[in-house]
Amino acid sequence: MTVPPDGDSVVTRTRAARAVPAAVATVAGCLVVVALLGAGVRTDFGPQLRLDATVSEALYVGDSRAVALDNLLGVLTAPGLSWFRFAIFLPVLVLLFLRRAWWTAAWVVTAVALVGPLNTLLKEYFGRVRPDFAHGGARLDSLSYPSGHSSGIATLVTVALVLAWPMMAARARHWALAVGVALVVLVGLTRMWLGVHFLSDVVGGWAFGLGWTLLTALLFGAFAEGRASLRPQL
């Protein structure tokens, strides 16, 4: 006698079948964004540079900002730093090792640890200098495109959402996605408020972080029913 498939299993497989093509399309779109904005940087594309300059002037909080505001912005921009990502995901890795989720742990390490070095390589290739404010980006030695903070926070949020998604209810998913997007946008804004990045740096960083994380998720099988995906423990 043929046993009918469980309804939840069918729904899960259907969602997984939809998730993979959507992730592939998103990765392709992100790569296009990074390449196009990077080409604009290297060729001094006028409309892009003018928009960057206009947005930078409008958002920069000023050379004489108060110490309290400077400290606040420093706190708000911290989630984009490498040490913040490592601090967040270290206990996650411990839990993954305890669950013997080796493929999941390998995916998390690859996505989180390599996004920074790869972003630095892109900066060296595109060679863009930082915005020229007296106490802004011009004081930093590193290059500007794409923003490392923006790619870092995009990776952190995307990894967290992909890990937790199969174990969350629909309502919780909506809230988690909204909070994640808000955090990504906030960190990107802080980079422009501080005068250390242009708009295209931030957008390029978001695109690179999201694209890189989804690419590694596809390669390791981190989506539902994949070898690196998490499932609720019974």
Query: Average pLDDT, to the nearest integer?
Result: 89
Helix content: over 70%
Question: Given the helix and strand composition, which structural class is it?
Answer: mainly alpha
Give the CA-based shape: globular
Largest sheet: none
Determine the N-to-C terminus distance: 27 Å
**Number of separate helices:** 8
Report Rg: 20 Å
Order of helices and strands: HHHHHHHH
What is the number of beta strands? Answer: 0
Tell me the strand percentage band: under 5%
Low-confidence blocks of residues: none
How many structural domains can be distinguished in the coordinates? 1
Task: Provide a descriptive summary of the structure in words.
There is one protein chain. This protein has helices at 7-42, 46-59, 67-77, 82-98, 102-126, 148-164, 170-193, 199-220. It is globular, with a radius of gyration of 20 Å. The two termini are 27 Å apart. α1 runs antiparallel to α8 (199-220) and α4 (82-98) runs antiparallel to α5. It is built from eight helices and no strands. It has 234 residues and is mainly alpha-helical. It has one domain.
Task: Write a brief structural summary.
By secondary structure, this protein is an all-alpha fold. Helix content is 71%, strand content 0%.
Keywords:
234 residues, mainly alpha, globular
Q: What are the SSEs and their pairings?
A:
Blueprint: H1 7-42, H2 46-59, H3 67-77, H4 82-98, H5 102-126, H6 148-164, H7 170-193, H8 199-220
Helix pairs in contact: 1-8, 3-7, 4-5, 5-6, 5-8, 6-7, 6-8, 7-8
